[in-house]
Amino acid sequence: MKLSFTPEDEQFRGEIASWLQENLCGEFAELKFRGGPGDEHMFPEQRKGWEQKLAEGGWTCVSWPKQYGGRELSIEQQVIFYEEYARAGAPGRMGHIGDGLAGPTILAFGTEAQKQKYLPGILAGTEFWCQGYSEPGAGSDLANVKTKARFDEASGKWILNGQKVWTSLAHESDYCFVIARTDPESSAHKGLGFFLMKMDQPGITVRPIEQITGTSEFNEVFFDDAVCDADDIVGAPGEGWKVAMGLLGFERGVSTLGQQMAFQNELDEVIKLAKSRGADRDPALRQRIAQAHIGLKIMRYNSMRMLSGGADGSLQKEALIYKLYWASWHRDLGELAMDILGEDADILAGENYELSRLQSLFLFTRSDTIYGGTNEIQRNIIAERGLGMPREKRAS
Q: Domain map of the chain by residue range?
């Protein structure tokens, strides 16, 4: 996709840039450049307040149809929004999962009643979502889900039992969309359901996972006879895989350009560090900085190709390489930052994991190549779905 920006688009760019400059100050000033990957544990309540400030300005859910409170922006203006948001150093979105994943999925696959029930809270920045996909035995292999859902005729509700893991910000979330097996005799991607579940209930326990960064934005989530209303399954029982794959398509949509602007901010910080320490005069480090710059440009151009996907989240083949590419690029950026820091990379500012931003970047990018599908799984997906190569042999 080749984007061309009209005078109206550039006027829109000025509008969002001005709004951010006027509002990302005062009580929200400390949020600038905070709350991104590896920093999601910081300022959760203030960032929830920022979500409501965005909603007041009409800057949540900008891609949604006007019928449901969105701005229904064109692709070009969505690109501008995400780029200017990241350029301004606006904080990581507490509402990202609802705004960019749960909401579009409900719009594409949900009933009108589900839209009326769940979309307003996301739009207003008052209700927050997490994602119940990965399990201890079903991380990259989502089709190996073991969490079970059975329909209880007496209560008229779904009853869920099982465990999810690596659930980002589950401890800060009001709702979770959960993949569970509705047919106990099914296997692989068949017999799954996609459930919309309230987190604040007796049958759900959230347990934080402490990482090597000393933070705990990830969680284990346990379902022990947790309940879900009969009307809160998206699609029919057995259609969960279709809905889940549609959601993954939304995950690789326009918001990826905002992710790349955040990457640009990190690269700029690395370059500034290199200049301040004289490391920019080292030929090997200069070459790696140049490669990082080139890699980020390639990432952007591939994202433009990805934007021609369908409204149901269907993925173009270009999208198959995106996770592998950005995860590897980001990991390499963390390693570059540590090599520029030299011996200082090994020194903490204080006790209790008082890491610098670049140290945290380095440690957190270890996980980039694992969550959301490991690099190894991503290569299998590219080979099998993109290139049509024979499937890898599975253990019998």
A: 7-94, 129-238, 252-386
